[in-house]
Amino acid sequence: MSKGAYQIGFTKALLRYIGRDEIKVISGASMGLFVAYSLAADRLDDFEYLYRNIDIGSTPQLFYRVFFKRMLWNYIGEFCSPDDEVEIPLSFPVCRIPLFSLRYYWLSGKYNPCWQKYLRAAINFPFLCIFPSVLEHRFAIDGGAGDNIPIYPVLKKGKGYLPAGEDFDLLIVLHFDARYDYRREFTTDIPVLDLDLGICNDFKKNHYDFSKEYVDEMIARAEEYGEKICARLFVGECTREELQDRVDQIFIEEHALRQKNISVDRLFSMLNYLGKALRNDATCHKNLF
Questions:
Q1: Which of 89, 72, 80 is nearest to 156 (CA)?
Q2: I need a labelling partner for 117 at 20 to 30 A (CA). Which of 44, 239, 261, 288 fits?
Q3: What is the per-residue pLDDT across 7-56, written as a single tens digit (0 to 9) for each?
Q4: Cβ(170)–Cβ(256) below 8 Å
């Protein structure tokens, strides 16, 4: 969906306040995986250029390009390069069928040729690709079908990438489900910045509009929104309690407006209950490095 442009804009604003070296772990699902990979491999500018130049405003034309011309698969081939190095550990989900079980794959370090196969499976959107992918002798589809806001792998395994005794200072969760509330799924002492980025453009529903004009608008709106959010969070030193107060205040301010809106991502979130119920904590993580 074209809404990935919001994540590009917000991330650009975020990087004006914190360095990439301060980002310890990244997780992304579905189209969000493109942004997550570009940030982890320090290729956000390349991905922004690609996104701005898709320039497809017609939904039938978009479906033709994705379904028959395998546009997304080809983009993985262009975007995941042998010269890449994933400097920030990256996790992404893949949904395996027909049992609808979840597997979280982790990337880190120098490019591995197998990455393209797994990344393509992770963005193999149901009904947009002729056939599901095949991974480890199982059919596999877009991980967003099982976990479209994958915080779980960060909390379950992400701390293993931190120095001993350290914890995350902040979890930033960017999504498009206005009714999402992480507190229904897990509890944590880590401050969680829960943002539905659709709010920065009045929850417009043009999910399949990749026209250059609209993508430019989304990136600009999200960058402006990200600037306002980051200016509130990252100005001056603060304790964890003060940071928690700041993220709580942002959530409270946006909560009423979010409750008045609903998006197609809410349907995916509801479908996610099945994937999460069948998730096997002991076997669902696998390193690809």
A1: 89
A2: 44
A3: 999 999 999 999 999 999 999 998 899 999 999 999 999 999 988 998 88
A4: no
Please choose, from the candidates 185, 188, 171, 193, the residue with its C-alpha nearest in 3D space to the C-alpha of residue 276: 185
Among residues of the chain, what percentage have pLDDT more than 70?
94
- Please report, as a single letter, which amino acid is at residue 141: I
What angle (nearest 5°) sits at the alpha carbon of residue 100, between those of residues 68 and 114?
60
- Tallying the residues shown for the chain, one arrives at 289
The backbone torsions φ and ψ at residue 133, rounded to the nearest 5 degrees and listed phi first, read -75, 170
Selection from 75, 16, 24 nearest residue 50 by Cα: 75
Collapse the DSSP code of 198 into the 3-class scheme (helix H, G, I; strand E, B; otherwise coil) and give the result.
helix
pTM for the structure as a whole: 0.91
Q: What are the backbone dihedrals phi and psi of residue 8, each rounded to the nearest 5 degrees, phi first?
A: -60, -50
Nearest to 226 by CA among 266, 199, 189, 202: 199
pLDDT of 106 higher than 90: yes
- Structure-token pair, residue 11: 């991330």
48's CB contacts (< 8 A; 6+ apart) are 8, 12, 219
d(CA 203, CA 172) in angstroms, rounded, equals 20
Which ranges in the chain belong to alpha helices (H)? 4-14, 32-40, 44-52, 59-67, 71-79, 115-122, 152-156, 212-233, 240-259, 264-277
At 268 the pLDDT is 66
DSSP designation for 150? -
